[in-house]
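U., I forgot to send this yesterday:
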Amino acid sequence: MIKWINKLFSSIPKEENTDNIKPEVHEHPKNNIKSVSKKYLIVGLGNIGAEYVNTRHNIGFKVLDFLAKKEGLSFETVKLGALAEYKFKGRTFFLLKPNTYMNLSGKAVKYWMDKENIPLENIFVITDDLNLSFGTIRIKPKGSDGGHNGLKNINLVLNTQNYTRFRFGISDQFKKGQQIDYVLGEWDEEEKAKLPERLEISSEIIKTFGTAGLENTMTTFNGK
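Result:
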């Protein structure tokens, strides 16, 4: 796994050679001058509270916690969530765990987008997906909420579906009528054993999104 990750990053241009990668561009709200944004808002969806920490529905929080621990970052309690700032290859990633509960996640996303002046194309939302087998990765530039309450609220508040989302498969191994118990349940032993490797890849996805762009990220990781 480590050799695979090293091989991946050896294929990504180093900072001084990234001129051939198209940067994200947005209009500055005050002077209407186009500027390059190197700031990214990475949103992990989940529910606050100790009882939810190891549940399937909290995979968004889990991914951000893994990256923060790996890079020696600390989350600070801020307005509408917990935030950690991560600098990597000239980019600044704001890792956000909303404290609004899942179905009001859009409020936190909109607030921190506006506060840090982060364009829509630099938003990256991590969420669980029942329709994908455990650990399956699917990154898309836009799409419907797929019945996910967190995405549904973000779509409503931002008034658009055109933002990048990273769906992490949690599978649908539950009996009829037990969906809520399943998504709010903890990982089984087999899933727990496989989770660290999936979290490692997930943390690399975040960095690749900021340094190599969405298209390269999808090409490299979708289906892994």
